[in-house]
Amino acid sequence: MSSKYPAGRLPEPPSPIADDGDETHFCGTCAFSSACIAAGYDKPELAELQCLVEHVGPFRAGEHIFRTGDPFRAIFAVRGGTVKTRMVDKEGREQVLGFYLPGEVIGLNAIYPEHFPCDAVALDTAFFCRFSFPAMSALASRVPAVQKHLFRMLSKELGSASLLAGDHSADERVAAFLMDLAGRYAARGFSATRFHLSMSRGDIANYLRLAAETVSRVLSRFRNQKLIQIEGRELQLLDPAGLRKIGQALLPD
Amino acid sequence: MATPIIPPEFDPALVARYDVAGPRYTSYPTAPQFTPSFDEAALRQVIRASNEEPIPRPLSLYVHVPFCMSPCFYCGCNRVITRDIGQADRYLERLYREIELAAPLFDRDRPVRQLHFGGGTPNFLDVPRMRELMESLARHFSFSQQAEREYGIELDPRFADGDYVHALGELGFNRMSVGIQDFDPAVQEAVNRIQSFEQTQEVIVAARESGFRSVSVDLIYGLPRQSVDGFSRTLDQIVELQPDRVAVYGYAHLPEMFKAQRQIVAEELPDAGTRLALFGRALAQLSAAGYVYIGMDHFARADDELAVAQRAGTLQRNFQGYSTHGDCDIIGLGVSAISRIGDSYSQSARDLTGYYATLDAGRLPVARGLLLDEDDVIRRELIGELMCHGSLDKRRFGERHRLLFDEYFAAARERLQPLIADGLLLEDRTSLQVTSPGRLLLRIIAMCFDAYLDGQAHTPRYSRAI
Fold it and tell me: What is the ipTM of this complex?
């Protein structure tokens, strides 16, 4: 009905968009900025190293960033939006492997096989920094801090699967899932208690190996217990400590 | 947020001044804004999205039965006059097809909290047909098993008896809305609806015996030959029937739009002053009998859920007027039925031919609709708040929707100035508050916030404000 930004409309709240960099400055949430800066490589120096970072996107909800089997040439840092990675088996059954938020990196699990072992699908409008991997590994060989950071990201990626391991109740899984998201948002400087759930309940359920109804039932229970407030996809954690307690078996200390 | 509810104050001179046509805001944007560009693909898309919310909304079903045995001359509803039950069977065939197409699109863990049969005359369907329809709905959707579920039906007492109502109770209905309009014989003759007090009483008593939790009745003022004395006697009889809710609608004479109304002799319609006196009498008598004014056309006993929800600040506006289940996605089934799913409205074909043709082609019968944009959502919530609770905390509303209230609604606030000067509402830095006289002119206040009425002459497609 009305124009895009009518009078009196306030700008978006500090929202999960990691896109505040320019030619000489890293984005505040850049996965590599601290490693590079610590090693004395600011953006101009990186440019000299021809470590070209290409901005790609937008990808719309449902669009692929890469597909299983695509040759591996680059990793992608999410600048804005949310991504899921997934595998589809021969029977066409989907298995959601993970969700990636602004500031996080996808494609790391393709380094060894040299082709992507999964699909990456945008859950909402998503933008990326594309790091050419040959250039990235050249940089890593020159800058030990970058190499160390790559290794750290790789081990984190491996560790994240532990959220699902073991025999845990639906309550534990959902609570741990919410607290994991909260921690990841907080680490990038976004609100840890208020965020938008871009993933569908089907994706959440698939990821947590639960039925969709179970996810909703647990969330309703958390709402009744005043642990969370939820309106559509807008989530507010009212009692993060309480949630942490429920999910503690699955969360790092 | 709980707010004290200010009782309405009837100021005939003020109401007369604002006696212009206006929408009733059972939806915002209103139905004239729906467009054919909202098609079946768009509807399927919003349904998919509604299933994928973290906690999908419960469901509310509206089922439209368009047939009536005889024409009431005041009627502006979508209906077909017939006595041929074969017509109903042809209709039901398509309705079942629609249920089979639509129901699987909604996840099965979404309970049907609310069910409403409207018309036309839902009791055009006899008990076996009604049973089959309810069984079909229960098979394809997940009926709520909770006691708070609200399963209601509109009833024409001229074509129902106590046994019929008992059967409805056994089928799971627990609310009933009874059409009355006026018991005055002169009025009944003029509108072609002869209905005795005894007939009406029989279905209401049967509803109570069958454990119906709520009975509401509909009256209309502004009908031909209506007099204040006659209407006053009707109101006494209504109070005697002890309904939980009373709706008092103003008759809108639009013969160029509604063919049935051409049977009404315009000279027999009450003049503007009488119209006002009729409503004033309804307000006075119902208030004296312990009913509270909810807003617009609606009254309820002080202990009724609507009145309780209004005091608690949780009342919502929907197609049936006011509701305590505003958090449901509404699925409209049947010809001309309107759905509200997520931030969308959609309406089925309004004629039987179109409705049948789409279903016979295996498609959902959506004919037009609208996907609300952010501004629509903001204004819908604001209008709903004013209509339900009569006040608004501008700061909280602004925070909730990321806007500077006074700036964002600058044009609306400009339009409010004469209303404020007339004492319909108060505005200060932090709030908007509808006053006692303003409570009877809610739609005039709401119209100021309607972005689609900007600079547009008010067309007579809407009924008058009072």
Answer: 0.80
